[in-house]
């Protein structure tokens, strides 16, 4: 682990552009050893095979969460008035978690499934405890807050040249910057209107490590960026090694609302 080191992308990331006044953010850079990477490749199918499996045996996905419009964010409303008028029901997060567990059980090896399950078990009690006392009106307010925040994130992504993605706590992608599409060749409209999840765009080991790190930082009091590395998988199965940082944004009740991820290719 490396502490106190300023990473190249840290000054340009979306999370730090918004939170510089509040937190300088220190991170830990986790590197996979060759032995660990080799073990992971033996436990789970290679990226190209994962893409092929997804095409031949697609999983049923939750329905889209809003009317499709064209722009940087082609799923969610494009103005504050649209946000407040269109959201009348709580967001169905359970469908995303159901898809997540179906995905890991069919796409990951047994050892990886065990690692992810342990990570989920680490933060699930805190999540359930916070949600237990919330009313329906609270849940609707949470969804309005998220969609309103997406409008602001959309503006920031337009000014920052770093490949950026914003996703929900389930991993469901909510906002995609054009630089990310250039980096990975994934179409933004396909990712948003098709209800894609961020862990689907990673190889098996990267997805497992992400959930392990998310579990550790999900209910921390700070909002510093978590810095690590990952391997993104393009639609054609080509792997793109990246430096990866993510920041967990929480709502009024202290529940993870959105995760802002920044990616830079490792050349």
- Helix-strand pattern: HHHHHHHEEHHHEEE
- Assembly form of the protein: single chain
Radius of gyration, in angstroms, nearest whole number: 18 Å
Number of strands: 5
In spatial order, strands of the major sheet run 2-1-5-4-3
- Helix-and-strand structural type: alpha+beta
Alpha-carbon distance between the two ends: 21 Å
Mass-distribution shape: globular
Strand content of the residues, in percent? 5-15%
Mean pLDDT: 79
Tell me the major beta sheet: 5 strands, antiparallel
Give the helix proportion (percent range).
40-55%
Please mark out the parts with pLDDT under 50 across 5 or more consecutive residues, or reply none: 1-43, 64-72
Specify the number of helices: 10
Walk me through this protein's architecture:
It is a single chain. The model is unreliable at 1-43 and 64-72 (pLDDT under 50). The protein has 10 helices and 5 strands. The two termini are 21 Å apart. It has helices at residues 14-19, 34-43, 47-56, 80-86, 93-107, 110-132, 136-159, 178-184, 188-193, 204-217; strands spanning 164-167, 173-176, 226-233, 239-250, 256-265. A hairpin with a 5-residue loop joins β4 and β5 (256-265). The longest helix is centred in the middle third of the chain and has 24 residues, at 136-159. The radius of gyration is 18 Å and the shape is globular. By secondary structure, the protein is of the alpha+beta class. It has a 5-stranded antiparallel beta sheet with strand order 2-1-5-4-3, with helices on both faces.
Give me some keywords for this one:
single chain, 267 residues, alpha+beta, 5 strands, 46% helix, 14% strand, globular
